[in-house]
Amino acid sequence: MNTLLLDVLDGKQVERPPIWLMRQAGRILPQYRKVRAGMGSFVDLVKNPEKAAEVTIQPVDELGVDAAILFSDILVIPECMGLEYHLVKNKGPVFPKTINDPGDIDQLIHGEIATKNLGYVYNTIGEIKNRLDRVPLIGFSGAPWTLFCYMLEGEGSKTFSKARRFLYQHPEASHKLMDKLAVSVAEYLKSQLENGVDCVQIFDSWAGMLGQDLYKEFGIKYIEQILSTLPTGTRTIVFSKGASSSFGELLNLDCKALGFDWSYRPSEINSVVKGRKVVQGNLDPCVLYGDEKTIKEKTLQLLTSFDEKHIVNLGHGVYPDTPLDGVKTFVNTVKSYRY
Ligand code: CP3
């Protein structure tokens, strides 16, 4: 087994950094698009352990990345708590029912009662573990704030102003919902670990929508709560996109690695992190649209900017129309590099 990712997270020395890509399992791969076309809906695919395992393994075969990430979605948490979602073509996730007032929050189930409905995810993990022993498997969840955004808005948004407005109008109810989410996410991640994932990443994709104070009060606090309930020694990666104003607070989280988007300069990351965390990131996903020479140059620049506690990744998920050759150039450049 290629243990590069686990070795870096465990603080061991490695000959080169591991690489995986956020959103590697999905539409960049023709193999994924084929499986997806044969399924009724995205949610059907997520709920089918056999097929979800298949698409989890595809990028390991096709791209040669150093880790697999469980094929699922962050939105399974709102669903198991009582808000179902659909994926609408050319639009994204849509929730027919949303949280409109504090009373709606009391209707939601949470914790183990909710996450026991996610047996299909645990079965997918078992199925992947039966078929894949070459590289580690990353489990994941959305962070409470990002899940809150979808539960309030009912869909994606440019401003997430409904979600942000609710924090001011109903602070107590907001804390209540964040707590319900944190308890559920913690339970869910514990079950993923019990079923065999080797590490977990918490995605806070919309962290950058909140200013420093609100992100501290409603975002980081609940990531902290989740981390504090995971078994000691759990390998954890926290990715708070756009949260550079909260850099100092993120650094105090009890996690092994922090993910960074491409707005950070590597030298800035190094000078603040000072080896206290493993650093994951942070190539601009748009570099992969460049020609081969550009991709190699930018990748080598990234590789030499960080020290040996680095997991190579993009600064956000790979965009669906990224040329596969560009992705492969990125992966292969990293794999032939040596410290
Ligand atoms: O490869 C992987 O990273 C594993 C699978 C994965 C998916 N979603 C599959 C998916 C992961 C880790 C996610 C996380 C996720 N889901 C996030 C956090 C990461 C990020 O990119 O910020 C968010 C915000 C979501 C919510 C979500 N799900 C959106 C906004 C969308 C539609 C837009 C989009 O990116 O496609 C989805 C659908 C979704 N989740 C797809 C996939 C492969 C597309 C499904 C399809 O069209 O077949």
Kindly list the characteristics that best describe this protein.
alpha/beta, TIM Barrel, two-stranded antiparallel sheet, 9 strands, 12% strand, binds coproporphyrinogen III
Give your account of this protein's structure.
The chain is of the alpha/beta class and 339 residues long. The protein has one domain (4-285, 307-315): TIM Barrel (Alpha-Beta Barrel). The protein contains 16 helices and 9 strands. The protein has a 7-stranded parallel β-sheet with strand order 1-4-5-6-7-8-9. A two-stranded antiparallel ribbon has the order 2-3. β7, α14 (266-273) and β8 (278-283) form a beta-alpha-beta unit. The mean pLDDT is 97. Coproporphyrinogen III binds at residues 22-27, 36, 42, 69, 71, 73-75, 87, 92-93, 140, 156, 203, 205, 317.
Which architecture name does CATH use? Alpha-Beta Barrel
The CATH first-level class comes to: Alpha Beta
Biggest sheet statistics? 7 strands, parallel
Give the strand tally. Answer: 9
Q: pLDDT below 50 for ≥5 consecutive residues: which ranges? A: none
Q: Strand-and-helix sequence, N→C?
A: HHHHEHEEHHHEHHHEHEHEHEHEH
Average predicted local confidence, pLDDT: 97
> What is the tally of helical segments?
16
- How many domains make up the coordinates? 1
Radius of gyration from the alpha-carbon trace, in angstroms: 19 Å
Gross morphology is: globular
**Small-molecule components bound:** coproporphyrinogen III
- Kindly identify the CATH topology: TIM Barrel
Helix content: 40-55%
Structural class determined from secondary elements: alpha/beta
Going across the major beta sheet, what is the strand order?
1-4-5-6-7-8-9
